[in-house]
């Protein structure tokens, strides 16, 4: 027998190999094996899906979660989430500072944050999965402290009135009250401060992302690691009620290209949701949004682009203690406590002229020295001696029009819905925005929170929904 | 009979030799002409059958089914035009050829005299259907669906071959006309029990009976539109037709042997109707409703009274037309919205009002509204089963109610309500689609004027 084997190896080469191959084939054909007469397609997304969500960050997953939660017959809609980077190395969600506040000036923003904090507080009722441990999002309810100078005091009072109307618990503090409550603050130049007493603070975004991911997977949503490269659409020339002709498009196929390969899979779909975060503008261009003469609805692009923001982590042993809120200085600098060892996170939004190049996520440490540290040290004298431990950079899905989110369907590409453009406060509003988009898809109108001022058509009609004092 | 078979066979070379822009026109018109040729067969004289040759005959049971089959081919061709428009020319011609071969085999099946020839053609119809499902179906699950379809039917029908050969040996002939008069009553020995089971199981699987119905939703959902139409309208009726023919040989044992199958059918009828209430996929709902209607036919055939046979025949024709039309409507939805989920395409009545009219009419037919032949069929079956056993009326009544429930649920979910934003720009109904629906509905409505043609 041995001789036969060696002879076989010399001559025919792989008699052994063939035998083991045949054995493997027989084993896979027997019941229980997963033999497929066609080539193996397990790494490809399915050939058709009712809803395709482009982008698997917190907004995309939130829309997926609410779609599966709000659908009337259970298991009716098939959802596919396409995310090209499963390590989330450049996603805005996980690079975020993780704060949540209700101190906005636009009432819808306040409502969104109020629902989101209710979601986060009861996260283990919403996102419970059988046999899995409960989530601990490490919510620190320390509140936000917004400081206003003389010029901004009137605006701040107005804002607080709006917030109180919506149900947020915010109090206004004078400089003496500030000094009493937070002795480490230098109130020079501060005329008024608004302090959120409840439902504000910061949490762990990675935990929310993983919790959502786990839950939507248990609800039957399919994930695919790939990049959307093409939308196949069909268009119809139709007349509006006033007689003018519009070209309405509908996307009927999404080409998903698999990572590091040329292979792509056309996914037949009925609805596409653009939750691609900072890259939503590119995805919208793929769908043909913005291709037309400027100034018309066809020519209105989705004004979401990448903007890089730096976050620095420093250690200051004499710094403020446990009751430190998320402080936002009138100059735009912000910081918050991180953990229990006198570490702090903070940064500053650069002005238009100093916008860093968003091509990579490299950190500019000089920015800290020049723009962040001086106002910090002025506001909190203890921060004159600090040591920067680390820093990172993340992207904002920056809406250049009015720095607030875009939600709802596009008027011309009628089956693309947006859930993007939140310019730095997307994470904190994600649960509520997900629910709003799911309501729009399933019912056709917003049911709980009315976000009709956040629709895409405002870019064409020019109605800005601008925040006063936003980071 | 040759005057139908030869033209159908010649449709194939006509398809292959047609000019590219004429293939659909040619095949549809000529198949329509062939269906008009088959209409005179409906004029059956009395109780006898029209014996046309040694091989083929037609009587008042097979004539309506024959007409249904030939009527369906032009409709299938019309329905497939849009989803095949992007294929290459050779593929289109191949698809049409598959349909024509299937048609040919079905015509010969329904008019066969010899039971062995019936069996061979019965099995042969599986092949073109399998090719249509697996090659032109929509999703990757179609392989699984094709496998289920093929093997369920094969497993059921292999014993039938053995039984037929045995009967040929003992009785000397399997020619249907002779066997009617030569059939001896069989006693209830064990071997006769197996003989009964062997004869009936093939048709039970094809009908399908409730416990053996798993292949049907899969096959229907994954098949392309023509595949679904022919499956629902004709292939299921093969089972009913076969059962009606073969029970002549199996008296009087059917009285005892039928009990488990009656129970399964009666219970399955209510069960599958209830499943329809929970379905989210439109095609799946229509597939389960097919199972439910066919369960009624099984009950009717097993009772074996003249009225139940009349009800079964009427129900088969009515269900063929109704189910096929429902699949066409579901397909017209799918081609526009690219999704089969019902809740994603709502409020179509405001956008496509004429299509909503077709939806309404076919839903009314599906829930057996008088005076359609659906009602006549169901009513005869209910009456016959009531006379067989008083208790069945409860289940039958429940089934009628649940049928009405899910049909109206399907109608209101797809047509009524506010339309969703993302279906605003769907194409309006094509003339081809409207013609398709009208051609389905016209026979159904005309038959309600003269149902005795289909009452067998």
TrEMBL record, chain A:
Gene3D superfamilies linked to this entry: D-Amino Acid Oxidase, subunit A, domain 2 (3.30.9.10), FAD/NAD(P)-binding domain (3.50.50.60)
Alphabetized Pfam families for the sequence: DAO
Keywords: Electron transport, FAD, Flavoprotein, Membrane, Mitochondrion, Mitochondrion inner membrane, Oxidoreductase, Respiratory chain, Transmembrane, Transmembrane helix, Transport
Role of this protein: Required for the assembly of the mitochondrial membrane respiratory chain NADH dehydrogenase (Complex I). Involved in mid-late stages of complex I assembly.
Keyword set includes Phosphoprotein: no
This protein's name: FAD-dependent oxidoreductase domain-containing protein 1
Entries under PANTHER family matching the protein: FAD-DEPENDENT OXIDOREDUCTASE DOMAIN-CONTAINING PROTEIN 1, SARCOSINE DEHYDROGENASE-RELATED
Gene Ontology CC: mitochondrial inner membrane
Domain of life: Eukaryota
GO molecular function, one term: oxidoreductase activity
Signal peptide: none
Quaternary structure (record): Associates with components of the mitochondrial respiratory chain complex I.
Membrane topology: Single-pass membrane protein
GO biological process, one term: mitochondrial respiratory chain complex I assembly
Known cofactor(s): FAD
Source organism: Panthera leo (Lion)
FAD dependent oxidoreductase domain sequence ranges: 50-440
UniProt cross-references to InterPro entries, sorted A to Z: FAD-dep_OxRdtase, FAD/NAD-bd_sf
TrEMBL record, chain B:
Catalytic activity: a ubiquinone + NADH + 5 H(+)(in) = a ubiquinol + NAD(+) + 4 H(+)(out)
GO aspect biological process, one term: electron transport coupled proton transport
Gene Ontology terms, MF aspect: NADH dehydrogenase (ubiquinone) activity; NADH dehydrogenase activity; ubiquinone binding
Class in the EC hierarchy, top level: translocase
This protein's GO CC annotations: mitochondrial membrane
Function according to Swiss-Prot or TrEMBL: Core subunit of the mitochondrial membrane respiratory chain NADH dehydrogenase (Complex I) which catalyzes electron transfer from NADH through the respiratory chain, using ubiquinone as an electron acceptor. Essential for the catalytic activity and assembly of complex I.
Protein name: NADH-ubiquinone oxidoreductase chain 4
Organism this protein belongs to: Panthera leo (Lion)
Gene (UniProt): ND4
